[in-house]
Amino acid sequence: ETGVTQTPRHLVMGMTNKKSLKCEQHLGHNAMYWYKQSAKKPLELMFVYSLEERVENNSVPSRFSPECPNSSHLFLHLHTLQPEDSALYLCASSQDQWGSYEQYFGPGTRLTVT
Amino acid sequence: GNSVTQMEGPVTLSEEAFLTINCTYTATGYPSLFWYVQYPGEGLQLLLKATKADDKGSNKGFEATYRKETTSFHLEKGSVQVSDSAVYFCALLFHSGSRLTFGEGTQLTVNP
Q1: Angle CA(B70)–CA(B74)–CA(B75) in degrees, nearest 5?
Q2: What residue in A sits closest to B41 (Cα-Cα)?
Q3: Given this model, what pLDDT does residue B30 score?
Q4: What residues in B contact A50, CB-CB < 8 Å?
Q5: Quick check: A102 contacting B, CB < 8 Å?
Q6: What mean pLDDT is predicted for residues A52-79?
Q7: At residue B98, does pLDDT exceed 90?
Q8: Nearest alpha-carbon partner for B11 in B104, B88, B78, B101
Q9: Over pLDDT 70: what percentage of chain A?
Q10: What is the mean pLDDT of chain A?
């Protein structure tokens, strides 16, 4: 099993839909992250969880709602999205949120909002 | 604040050419430095890292040396292959728990 998995890999949704992205890490890490990668823009950190507690929310609109039920799983619940939310959403994990621990990334979910 | 500036792409090379992708950073203190690679349709993979000045990170023929005096961490490879075609990201991270700060990425295309 690869280190960080994400499902689905591709998602097309309308602006009125509700969907969820799932991330699972098999590395025994304590910190998990959601990033947004849009064309022609640097990676944007959205949320950070440490030991299942949200420790950072970088001014993300409320139409994105994260959930971390345990240290291995991270969800991103989506509702009433806008076309500009179309992007690649990347999940990552690291040993801990502190220290120079490298982050391990999943393959991403390519989201298209129509 | 912290920032990372990468060489603008896209970069197009022929197979076996020498590669340099420049990366400079602005930060107060001495962060750890990373290069990540993103192959088409995939997430980011750690390519190499260096945690202190003068350290050299290396992996898969790629190298980068942490230069404190020039605040740089340039990525080099002596002979690129078609399979190296990807987007390369330079990033920094402080031990005290700041977040990974990424550069904008450099698209590399290697032609046969």
Answers
A1: 165
A2: A107
A3: 85
A4: none
A5: yes
A6: 90
A7: no
A8: B88
A9: 96
A10: 90
Contacts of A4 (CB under 8 A, 6+ apart): A23, A24, A25, A26, A27, A91, A92, A93, A104, A105, A106, B43
Q: Which of A4, A41, A103 sits opposite B100 (nearest CB)?
A: A103
Q: Give the 3-state secondary structure of residue A85.
A: helix
A 57-86 → B contacts, CB under 8 A: none
Q: Between chains, do A102 and B34 touch, taking CB under 8 Å as contact?
A: yes
Residue B3: strand pairing partners:
B26
Cα angle, residue B8 at apex, residues B5 and B9 outer, rounded to 5°: 140
* Nearest CB partner across the interface for A42, out of B36, B43, B103: B103
The letter for the amino acid at B39 is: Y
Q: What is the mean pLDDT of residues B88-92?
A: 94
